[in-house]
Design goal:
Length: about 290
Amino acid sequence: MKRLAIISLMSDGGCHIAFLELHEELLHLLGQVELIHSYMLVDRREIPEHIDIALIEGGVRTTHDIELLKEARSKSKILVALGSCACFGGIPGLSNLYDLRASLDYVYRGTPTTTEGVIPHENVPSVIRVAPISRFVQVDLQIPGCPPEPEEIKEAIVSLIKGEVPSQPSKTVCDECELGPPKEKPRRLRKIYEPPEPDRCLLEQGYFCMGPVTRAGCGAKCPRIGVPCDGCSGPAPKALDQGISILDALVTLAYKNIENFSLKQHSAYFYRYTFASSVIEDLLRKKLRERR
């Protein structure tokens, strides 16, 4: 029987919950694997040896995360990035838009503050720029999403148990959406609180929808109920960079509405989940290395 472990780094636990949301199917799955590590289900603190499949949730934020990640990699035959934080850095990666020291000063020395104004440094891990786990170890499979789809988690584990390569979506959310893709250019950009017209592409109506550049697999759940896709599953297979891809699309569709582009202002849209793994982040890291 294959040995399965779920290991958490910087995480809110949402991906772990997505695994548990298999409900009764989880019982069938646990009949095929031995769950040897899970902070929600197994009373065991240390990472065990001889892991066949390790699911890693959360991105890297501290030096402790790096050590834990490398330990998991050394003890695992197959390592899977579970969720968009592990795959791309996730929403915490937007903090990389700001200077790390300034961010720490704001949290610990800002006004008002509930701390003594001292940044912890003794006997605690160092805080670093947010990064996907692939920046430090080899990743064998990615299951993105915030959170990932429980069914996709199950299907991936079942395939790995059988020694098969799990199938991965090759299309975009737009391909899964009954409303899109857009057939005409939007006349203006709409706010998310404005009620959409039913049965019409949201991007076409002027809502900021990431569907054209986002990996399929969710069934376009958000656009189907009138909520624009926010790109939580990361870039579509053929998109080199999610933010650059959607910016390119918007230049074609609505150039006049985005001519006052601001990296810090718009990155929460273009790179909500993928800034830490973006081309821009690579350039920022290179610039920081040159300064040293």
